[in-house]
């Protein structure tokens, strides 16, 4: 009975998750730095944040955010500030030239918990994700659809998001692929930092 609605959600989500954005940039960055393991934990954080969006949509908080410019703008600025911080940190790291005598200058790899938190915050604070899930739960999903079915939709979206980025992490974490990309040196790190900064500015100025 709900298959048509489900397929509409799945297709919309496929286009949304596959498009370049903060999640893609952060997962790629972490996969390059820490390999597949770091990328997968970051992906798990991104996927878990989907459940956060689904929860507040079911509770009606998303509608409240959309109708309260002050609350929405606050969340938007928090997201922009966080991504800007990550971008600047990435560029600053690329400017450091560690020597054999000073290994402490190298940025340590993120622990599993920190990688998870980075993915969770990146997606959880993203106002574009808020608008996307608001559209799903107010336009695509029929208000008469049982809450249990809507919860199942949410679980699917979270799992599908995690699997997509985990797959991306697996590819980027392959030693040959990773070494090839890392062979580009600090310029790749600077490029990723610049992308995060540009995304943060886009969010802060446009909210999309």
Question: Could you list the spans in which at least 5 consecutive residues all have pLDDT below 50?
Answer: 98-107
Number of DSSP helical runs:
9
* Radius of gyration over C-alpha positions, nearest whole angstrom: 18 Å
Query: What is the first-to-last residue Cα distance?
Result: 33 Å
> What is the arithmetic mean of pLDDT?
80
Structural class: mainly alpha
Overall number of domains:
1
Shape: globular
Number of strands: 0
| Percent range for β-strand residues | under 5%
Query: Biggest sheet: strands, sense, closure?
Result: none
| Order of secondary-structure elements | HHHHHHHHH
Helix content: over 70%
Task: Walk me through the structure.
There is one protein chain. This protein is mainly α. It is 82% helix and 0% strand. The protein has one domain (23-95, 112-206). It has helices spanning 3-18, 22-59, 61-67, 69-95, 112-124, 127-140, 147-173, 175-182, 186-206. Helix 2 packs across helix 6 (127-140) and helix 2 runs parallel beside helix 9 (186-206).
């Amino acid at each position: 009975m709900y298959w048509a609605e489900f397929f509409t959600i799945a297709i919309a989500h496929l286009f949304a998750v596959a498009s370049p954005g903060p999640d893609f940039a952060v997962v790629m960055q972490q996969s390059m730095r820490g390999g597949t393991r770091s990328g997968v934990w970051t992906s798990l954080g991104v996927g878990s944040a989907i459940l956060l969006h689904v929860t507040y949509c079911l509770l009606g908080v998303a509608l409240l955010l959309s109708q309260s410019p002050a609350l929405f703008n606050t969340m938007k600025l928090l997201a922009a500030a966080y991504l800007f911080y990550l971008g600047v940190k990435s560029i600053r790291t690329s400017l450091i030239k560690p020597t054999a005598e000073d290994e402490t200058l190298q940025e340590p790899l993120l622990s599993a918990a920190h990688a998870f938190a980075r993915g969770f915050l990146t997606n959880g604070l993203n106002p574009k994700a808020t608008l996307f899930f608001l559209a799903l739960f107010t336009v695509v999903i029929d208000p008469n659809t049982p809450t249990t079915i809507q919860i199942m939709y949410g679980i699917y979206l979270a799992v599908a998001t995690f699997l997509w980025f985990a797959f991306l992490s697996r590819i980027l974490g392959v030693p040959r692929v990773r070494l090839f990309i890392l062979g580009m040196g600090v310029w790749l790190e600077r490029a990723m930092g610049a992308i995060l900064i540009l995304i943060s500015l886009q969010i802060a100025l446009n909210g999309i």
